[in-house]
Specification:
seven-stranded mixed beta sheet; about 170 residues; alpha+beta
């Protein structure tokens, strides 16, 4: 498996397929309707504009296995050292170490970009994602009970955080 930098031209379709599968079959995304292909143009544009990485996992045969990225945690300036990440794996390749490899790459990218805290919002019933985050040094930061409603039930949203070694010299402003 190789971790690669994703771009619109080569990876948008595969990423959209994984996102839409997660939307219609899981509570990994608190969204109801599959996204249209045109939404990927803006998604990639926003990632590029903010220099947020989009990492993909590709098998030795060239199969796209999953992706991970991060973005703004909250819009106010004092949150500039905090990001919220996401990681999604194709349904046929879960439990193969794909998410772990993507997260390791994402953590390294965050440190290279001098972020200090990575936050992940996870459906509290997603034991596999919670276990992965804990294995990677994330700690439970809190829960918002009944934050979402999907598939006829309330969903609790648990936040996990990992503090990074960076930046060496944080500044205000």
């Amino acid at each position: 498996m190789n971790i690669v930098a994703c771009d619109y031209e080569h990876h948008a379709g595969a990423i959209l397929e994984i996102l839409n599968d997660a939307i219609v079959t899981s509570t990994a995304l608190f969204d109801y309707k599959p996204r249209a292909p045109a939404t990927m143009v803006e998604w990639f544009r926003a990632k590029k504009a903010h220099q947020y990485p989009v990492l993909g996992a590709v098998s030795d045969r060239g199969d796209f296995l999953g992706f991970a990225s991060y973005g703004t945690f909250r819009a106010w300036p004092a949150y500039k050292y905090t990001i919220e990440h996401s990681v999604y794996v194709h349904r046929d390749h879960r439990r193969e170490g794909v998410a772990r490899a993507l997260m390791i790459g994402l953590i390294a990218a965050a440190e290279q970009q001098n972020y200090h805290v990575m936050v992940g919002g996870i459906d509290a019933a997603n034991a596999a994602s919670i276990a992965l985050h804990e294995q990677l040094g994330f700690e439970r930061a809190g829960v918002i009970h009944q934050a979402g409603f999907k598939f006829g039930r309330w969903l609790d949203l648990v936040f996990y955080e990992r503090r990074l070694r960076t930046p060496a010299l944080p500044v205000d402003g």
